[in-house]
Write a structure and sequence with these properties.
3 helices; nine-stranded antiparallel β-sheet; 27 strands; globular; about 50% strand; mainly beta
Length: about 375
Amino acid sequence: MKSIIKFWCYPLFIMGILVFTTSSCKKSDDASNKSYYKGSASKGDLVTFEINKTDKSYLINNETTGNVEGGTYSIMDGQLSGVYKVTTGGNNFYAVELDNQVIAANFPSGNSENKITFGISASINNVGREAQIAGDYVYIHFSNTAINGNVRNKEWGIVSVLQSGTLYIKPYATGGTSGISGLTTLAPENFNLTLPLSTGDLQGSWSVNGNDKVKLNVGINGTQYTGFSYATSTSAVFLLDMGIGNGYILGLKIPSTPVTISQLAGTYKFVGVVADGKKLAGNAYIKTDGTGTCAIETNGTLSDNEYFTGITQCPHLSNVLYANHFDPDFPTYQGKAYFVLMGDIMMYFIFDNQGLFNAYGAGAKIAVP
């Protein structure tokens, strides 16, 4: 967590010049308590975030549309303690921040078609971190486009990022008919390819952007894309903006040792989107016995009786676990939930028993006072 520096400021006049004032003291406090993030939104827009914890304000600059959104947020308590909440235009929006690492938000972001955004700390310098960035990532494609003919089918897959500067992407669909014109339908628990990938449906190159060091330059089939990476010895995130209208892929690195249910266990705060477009915030409590509960707030209304049972690890994806999911308030949502974990960062997707998308999102284990 970021430490807060306290400045003692005194008004001084030296040669008739006012050096410090109480207002300059306030500015120093503000500057020490701001966080900046860069990332992408589900329409494919590039966005930047500014979070000011001193006055609980936020600013989102949509670099693609040129629009800027901002305002103040409150910090929720109770079951959703620690989640940021914004109320504007009669609607509620939410965000989860893992300080100076990542932010996941469904705040207004300069384009009404953006459902969920994700950002990586702008202070990260990826120069010299190529070896930490390299690896295999499980990704979810956050996008509003149809997959295999239906917007309620979603894309997930594997990105192998090689230290040599090559990357391979192997996408799959969660539902629909596989074929030449579509993606192969495959559940994560049935994935069994050898990693790292040596081929893929897409192949490209990557390098760290020397001017904006949180960014990656990614080239795929002659098209240039903007990537972002947060990589440390304990956590690694690969974010790739896929261009206007195409959303982004968010990948969490697959560790060399399996993530056990006991490691997954804990409390996670997250933001997400459901199939009808409603935006939500949630608190998932996962137990070591392979069960869990979930509390969800959607536009100010709290539901706290969702259940997970039978949490099981995917045999060939060591950081992906899945469970039976049931919400008695919405029986048609009964189905399967997947959790992808890397360090304190988590993303998820939920499907009904027909394999159709119900919800997805991202979040983290965050320290709550």
